[in-house]
What does this fold into?
Amino acid sequence: MYFVDVILPLPLPKPFTYNINEEEAHFLQVGMRVAVPFGKAKVYTGLVDKVHENKPTYDTKDIAYILDETPIITSTQLAHWQWIADFYMCSLGEVLKAALPAAFLIESETVIEIAEKNIDMALLTDDEWQVYEALQYKTSLKGSEVGKIIPKKKSLKIIKSLVEKGAVRVSEKMFEKYVPKLIKYVRLAPQYQTETGLKEAFALLEKAVKQKQLLMAYFNHFNRDKSPLKSDKLIEDAKVSVGVLKAVVEKGVLEEYYLQKDRVSFAENTTDDKNVLSEAQREAFADIKKEFEDKNTVLLQGVTASGKTEIYIELIDEYLKKGKQVLYLLPEIGITIHLINRLKKRFGKQLSVYHSRYTTNERVEVWNNVLANNEKAQLVVGVRSSVYLPFRELGLVIVDEEHDSSYRQFDPAPRLQARDTAIMLANFFKAKTLLGSATPSLESMHNVKLDKYGFVYLSQRYANYQLPIIEIIDIKDKQHRKRMSGHFSDVLIQEINNTLESGRQVLLFQNRRGYAPVVQCMHCGTVPQCPHCDVSLTFHQGSNQLRCHYCGYTTPMPKTCIACGSVDLKTKGFGTEQISKELAELLPQAVTDRMDQDTTNGKYGYEKILAKFEQQETQILVGTQMITKGLDFSNVGLVGVMNADASIHFPDYRAYERSFQLLLQIAGRAGRSAKQGKVLIQTYNPEHLVIQQVLKNDFKQMYQYQIEERRNFLYPPFVQMIRISLKHPEFNRVNEGADWLAGALRELFSTQNNVVVLGPEFPLISRIRNEYIKEILVKISPSHISMHTVKQQIKRTEISFQSISNYRPIRVSYVVE
It folds into this structure.
């Protein structure tokens, strides 16, 4: 007998084994998809992990279908996914579900059809009659559609009852979501392609003037351009209707055919623009290549606007000429949009883009092109999901803005760090990795100090443009002197006016969206809270709603206090929406725009806002951290930070480091041309260490202070941390479960001084989507013990934890730092 191990897209600890026959055993390869039964329902998409003859201890079922003729993932890719699962403490099935485009995860759905048309209606209940009547108007219904006709809780029971009464029959059908894009073309039918045939064709259409006109347009195109002719292009050129073309096709003179076309292509944008590197850039480029001789990973630290992207482009060009694939990783989709315009001029024919704003079909096409190592997928630009792609000949990985917190995936699993995952991906291919940033992460800089990474420093801005002037504005003092208009100091308003008068643009940064994060009753102090999360609701004035930014709950803005009925409601704090409103009142002539999660929801949301700003239609752009990184606009003369304190005082050991990086990155958007820019930072605490380090642009001092603190208090990079989260809707159960698990871990590691178990504690937000959260922190000194061993011991303890019936419903997840 033959068996196949199948990875299912479920949080299962290991693959499941199924029966196959000898023919299937010889046909199946690792990485093919198969449809398999699992439990009472069907989970259609499983991935072949291994074909063997070892019978498992449990009874095995047969596979249902083989879905692929060739593997859709590579063996190297599967090994990389296994590393992700092991390192980030999740299952291979969870990695599979996150990695594959949704169209590859074929769905199975119950389909209900009428079995007996002459059934006695008296036998049916009201709910059954509703479903049966709906089937009179539709040949079949999906299970999900039945749930819309009658209450969802009853739907399965009703379907079962109808089947038993012989009124309907049930089947399982597969729905594969990927649909290739087919373009309709026309060509002359074979029998009319000779000179005699042409005369016959014109004779056939002699009396139909419009049809003859269409045929003439076809020959005009063919004489001018031998390329295939789209049917809609022919109709447009001939200035006739669709019906005319249809008539000519029916007469057999022209015939229609279809060609598959990628939905996203940059080939038509290619030009041979060659970068001209400055002397400093050429030196940095040469140093990177020299460092690559000894090191697989190199950190490039270049001040903002030093032209790191131009160096990346030259490096990409070299590797593409060697026949190698390149992965260019970015933290935000917004940067991707901006960067594509630069890359497509040089690499249009070889460029593919992969991120969540593309449709499922578009992502499948990129996946297939990368897998086939097609010319159009030699350079892949994308966000963190790009690390899952099936590369064949990966030679170089570039991680831009490598310090960015957006590279960390939190929910759902795998909770990976894309920068570290990309470095490991490069190692699987023996490829090189270039990390780039103006403000590198402490971990990367520490690896440079340990001589694990190479290091190159680019100290000059491109064309020796001057760094912007940074000034601090003390809001507390301005409020005391009554020199604040809303949230704008008099200095900031004056500088905005001066900048606009000089024809330059302004960026304003406030890292909160919405109008105000808190609405409070001035009479009794009540603050509206989300019923599902332990957070206050944010007021969005545009929609006049209170909204939870964690679960999406919305409710209309109340006119009176929900507790005491008072009408005295006041907003506290401010977001991008409120800044935009104040700007409209202070500077009514200025053209302003807003860039945050609320305004960039659509597929082309980013492009529209950035295009208007780039073409200088927008004078002032207000935004969250989306505007802080990677954007290169030469006409920005002023950057204003509305309040620098919120991120500094966040309860996180990385708060100071991230605040420094954020402020320096946003400052770097100013003066990216011959004219020097200006940065104004409003704060209540102008003497704060981080603010002063930003003022002096002193990365070295920030690094020294923070690395000493990390060493003293045992935080990464000196220890590795595993944050264990327990979630459940019942407060007492999650409390008891967390205490039990923390106690078990303390006992397990009691003899090992280099493993410290802290907690359990409630996090800053202790309830999200009706689930209470409690966290345990495990700190490990890797030099004394194997991380792999510690993870195995923790996983074994989790199995004991799940074996206790009261704790089994508690969800346990891990974040490895």
Q: What stands out?
A: The chain has 26 helices and 36 strands. Residues 119 and 167 are 7 Å apart (CA to CA). The chain has a mean pLDDT of 88. Residues 516-573 form one domain.
